[in-house]
Every structure is written in structure tokens, then in C-alpha cells.
Sequence to fold (471 residues):
Amino acid sequence: MPFNARQYLQSLEMDTSSTRRLVDEPMDRDLEAGPTPAESCAFFSEASSNHYKPSQPLSLITGTGFSLYKSLIIPAITQAQQEVILVTCFWADSATRSALRSALLALSAKASETSTKIRVQICFSSKSLARNMLLPTPQRGQIYSPSKWAKLGLPDVREIPGLQLNVTRKFFWPFGIIHSKYVIIDRELAIFPSCNISWERWFETAISMRGPVVDHLLSFHTNFWLQGEPLPPLPQPQGPDAFHAEHETVPKVMSSSNRIPTALLPSPHTWSLLPPHLSPKRLFCSLPCVPSVPPSHPPTPLLTTTSHLLRTASRSIILLTPNVTAPTVLSLLHAALARGVAITICTNENLMTAEQLVTAGSTTPRCLSSLSSSVQKLPGSLNVYYFDSPSSPGGLGAREVKEGKKDQETTAVKLHAKVTIVDDERMLLGSGNMDAASWGTSQELGVLVQSKDLVRDFKNQWPFWPLGQGD
Fold:
């Protein structure tokens, strides 16, 4: 269904008197942003103004998708007492899916011991390209009956008597991928991984948090996946400290566990019959003698805030992203170089090339080559590292895994993390890439935090080349 901004805002119950801004300057509407849909005006003015409520980061980890699930997400799921909500984009047969299946069996057994039912909601967008193109879903989504669970790699309904399981898929033709990824445990713990439930051995990140960001995430989730219907109330916990006792073993690897400025930034799906680079306006402006227009993007909170971060960076920008093809991003990076900003980009030389050509009409190496050619004339600096290139420091050659090797599932061969760090104090994580799809049509979700300690923790976990100058 279309994103109901007014209902989402009301559900957040923002207390503007107690909020502060994550950035010093007010969030002016970006020149690159397109017209604001009427239904999202209220949401735009509030959420994209970088208002936050302090939340507590518990852990920030890196690794492959399988290792993130094994070390952080699976333990959190098996410790749930009342409810698990898991949302991902791609759902495929993999070691991760097998581990999740085992976790659901264990969770059901735990619930059965106390004669309780634990609610589990699994939401995803894609099983295959063919299914997406031939079987788009209705607005409310495709709900899988228990007889279909086995084909999804999930336990049979008779194997999980302690669970109340619901499985839903949403994909809107032709480019309506639902790309957001998150896990909510007992409405108290939120995890934002960059990975899917799939076989890819890609480098990923995940952050877990408590606090108001969980409530905001629940509002976002119910608005989209439940068509605005409220979640049923949870049963009373076993004791006043039951949740925290159960989740004592969730990894806590932060150097500081203090509450930090945090903002949840959604980017609703934008319907389009054509990819942005083939829009009539863009094609017309590419004709000779027709004045060019600046790159545009849907004025969603996530995209507008990301644009603002890049536009106001004063010292450094670090980007970890699978691809870089969004015209707005490239334009903002060029402007940052003109301001003297030091930019480090970690991406891939060859990942989803066909998708890049369809959605952007170009590729990451081509886009970054064009950007690099302008550096000599600008005061800023640009360092580009290709994660999957054997010639890059710590690149594919240093991480190559032989078939059947023991650590195959935990050795990354591509970069899939989505991290933006500005001036070493603001960090944006989530599902959004710096490519044309994420900046054009896909539904995305990001979480913006302001913490030098958190940035330092992440950079200390990065095992490859230096992230930024002076590291």
C-alpha cells in the first residue's frame, strides 16, 4: 500500500520539545530533491529534519550474512519470549536459512515447555527474478499458507506447535523491490543487518539497539506490512526483568553503551514504469541544445538526509556500498571534492552489473572513473577501493576461499555493507545503496547515529585497507 505518512507520524508520537538536531544546520530542502507528494509533506518536514530520540546501541558487528545471523541474530531469536519479527529482501536456500529453521524449532520447543505461543512474522520481497516479474503481489502482500512453508525452507506446522507463524511476501511490479532489512525481538530489541537470507558470501554489517528507535521501527513495520493495523498486545512477560534476563547473552561489543542520538529514516517505495535514466524528462534533457537539469531523487527522509549529509560534510566522507551509480550521489561527491573533502569509497568492481545497466544505464567502475578524472582539478582527495579486485589491498586475492574449505561461509568475496560516515562522527547504516535503484524506486530503511565512539568501533573492526586519512 502507499506509504501513509500522516499515520506513521502520529504513531511515532514525536515530542519535538525534547528533540535536538543531529546536524548544526537546519535541513533545507535539497535542490536535488524532486517534488514532495502531498501525502508525505508532514512526514517529510518531521523525519527528514534529523530529529532524533536517544537510543542505546548494544552491538555493531561485521562479517558475512551467515556469520551475522549465527553470532547475533539467531541468538536473539532463540531468546525471544513473546514475538519475533524478521524482515528481509531476498529469501533463498542457504546455510543462513537452515540456521534460521533450526532456531525456529528451538524457539518452539522452548515455548512448548511453558505452554505458551510465540508469535513469529517473516516478511520478504523476492525469491527469484522470474517470480517477481510474473507474480507481483497485491498491496497487502502474498500470505503463505502452512502447506507452502516447506517450499520456503521453513518447518512444517506440526514441528513448531509453540509458534504462531505468519509468512508474507511483497513485490510491486515492475521495480517495486522491498529492500529494507530488520529484526525486532519482543518489541524491545531492534537489529538492522545489511544482509539477506541467502547464500552470498558478502561482507555485511549489523547493529542492534534498544530505546525509542524500536518503537519507531514498529510503527514503520505496522504501517507497511500490516496496512496500518496495530499489532496485537503482547502477553505479560514472565517477570519484570524477564526480557533483559533472557537477552543477557546477546553480543555486546560496543566500547560505550550510552544512549546516542538516533534517527530512523524510511524511504518508501516510489512507483515508476521506467528506470530513472529512461524517464521522458531525463531523455528530453539529454538532447542537444536542451538545458540539462540537476539529478533528482524522491524526497524521502532517508534520501534527503543522506543528500544533506554529503552536502554538508566538511572534512571526510567514507562510503561502503555495493555499487555507486546514483547521479545525485555522484554530483554530491563531486561538490564535496570541490570543497576539499577527503573521500574514501569501498565498493565492487563487478557486482550485479546487469541490474546496474537496467536501473542506471551505467556501471560503478564507469561512474567512478568519471569522478576520478575530475579530482586533479579539485582540492579534495578521492580513494577508491574495489573489494572484489585482486589488486586492491586486502582484496579478493587475499580472501579467496577454496571450494569446501571450512571457513567458506564466513569469508567474504564481495562487499554488501551499506555504511556512510561523515566527518568521523555521523554514521548511517541500513539497507540503502548508493545506486540508482535505492535512489529511485526501492523501499529502503536507514538508521542514522551520531557517535564518534561508534564510528571508531566500526573502523577498528574493518580488517582491510585504511578507512579515511590518518588511519
Notes: The two ends are 45 Å apart (CA to CA). Residues 182 and 192 are 5 Å apart (CA to CA).
